[in-house]
Amino acid sequence: MKIKQITQVLALILLTVGVSNAQKFGFINTQALIQEIPEVKEANSNLETYKAQLQKKGQEMIVALQKKYQDLERKQANGEIAPKQLEVEASKLKEEEAKIGQFEQTSQQQIITKSEQLLKPLRDKIQKAIDDVASEGGFTYIFDASLGTILYADDSTDVSSLVRAKLGM
Fold first, then answer.
1. Nearest to residue 167, comparing CAs of 46, 45, 40?
2. Are 133 and 163 in contact (CB under 8 A)?
3. Which of 17, 61, 123, 147 has the most crowded CB, counting CB atoms within 10 A?
4. What domains are there in the chain, each with its CATH number?
5. Contact residues for 130 (Cβ-Cβ < 8 A; gap 6+)
């Protein structure tokens, strides 16, 4: 009975060793690769321009609001405005202030959406190149070294040059 169990365990070990030897592993540093792609640099530049435009518009809104507050304070100091009218005007300015806060939140969401719109096709292109390299090279797994999950890797398993070739770089 024990011989049968030992035989089964040995068979399982041999099967496991045989399967693991058949697997081929590779790695790539996607962050380094992304830095080399001209389209990514262009997308990031476009994103920064878009972000700067939204920030400029937000800053203009803030400056205009500050001017309105100063005008209201001046009118109050000079006695040019009745207390009831002061309340109404102050309320309007508070509403405008809330709109600026909403604009800032919306702007952040727009920047995220624009980033996704610009960078997703590039990430998909990179992923397809990695998938093609894995398929053509018979790789079972390709790890991303930029995520810090690889403790050791033989340089011969680095598939970066193969992915660059797929991307036409």
1. 40
2. yes
3. 61
4. 2-166 (3.30.910.20)
5. 28, 142, 159, 163
Distance CA 140, CA 136 (A): 11
CB 122 within 8 A of CB 100: no
Give the mean pLDDT of the chain: 86
Q: Extract the runs of DSSP E, i.e. beta strands, from 112-155.
A: 141-144
Kindly report, residue by residue over 136-164, the tens digit of the pLDDT: 999 888 898 888 766 566 778 888 899 99
Q: Block means of pLDDT (10 residues each) for the chain, length 169 residues?
A: 52 48 83 91 95 97 96 92 92 96 97 95 92 90 82 76 89
